[in-house]
């Protein structure tokens, strides 16, 4: 069970990524985030996080991208990698993010 501090960090990070009409990191940065997530090959398929919506999937609706990013953040929290993901996302420049209305 996550500690209170981790739950608070998770809630703050989920709020942060939604600020300023953010959708998700731009494709290259989202791939970098994906590489930071712990390997999930050993997990059952239904417990693995889905791939980032980049490359051909970049045309997906903004809401799906937002939900996928949240899935990645929650996966990191479950695996004890939330602090690494938090630090990565907070160091991104605003230009590293896709925003509602950008596309």
Average pLDDT works out at 91
| Spatial shape | globular
Please identify the structural class as seen in this structure: mainly alpha
Structure summary, number of beta strands: 2
Largest sheet: 2 strands, antiparallel
The overall number of domains is 1
Tally the helices: 4
Widest β-sheet, arrangement of strands:
1-2
What proportion of the residues form beta strands (DSSP E)?
Answer: 5-15%
Radius of gyration: 13 Å
Instruction: Give me the strand/helix succession.
Output: HEHHHE
Which residue ranges are poorly predicted, with pLDDT under 50 across at least 5 consecutive positions? none
Short key terms for the protein model shown above:
103 residues, mainly alpha, two-stranded antiparallel sheet, 4 helices, 2 strands
Written description of the protein model:
The protein has 103 residues and is mostly helical. The chain has one domain. The protein contains four helices and two strands. The chain has helices at residues 4-18, 27-36, 62-78, 82-91, and strands at residues 22-25, 97-99. It has a two-stranded antiparallel sheet. Helix 1 packs antiparallel against helix 3 (62-78) and helix 3 crosses helix 4. The N and C termini lie far apart (39 Å). The mean pLDDT is 91.
């Amino acid at each position: 069970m996550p500690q209170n501090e981790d739950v608070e960090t998770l809630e703050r990070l989920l709020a942060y990524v939604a600020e300023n009409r953010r959708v998700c990191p731009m494709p290259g940065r989202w791939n970098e985030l994906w590489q930071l997530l712990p390997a999930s090959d050993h997990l059952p398929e239904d417990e693995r996080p889905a791939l980032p919506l980049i490359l051909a999937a970049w045309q997906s609706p903004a809401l799906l991208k937002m939900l996928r990013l949240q899935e990645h953040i929650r996966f990191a929290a479950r695996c004890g990698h939330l602090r690494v993901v938090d630090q990565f996302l907070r160091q991104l420049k605003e230009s590293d993010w896709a925003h509602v209305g950008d596309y």
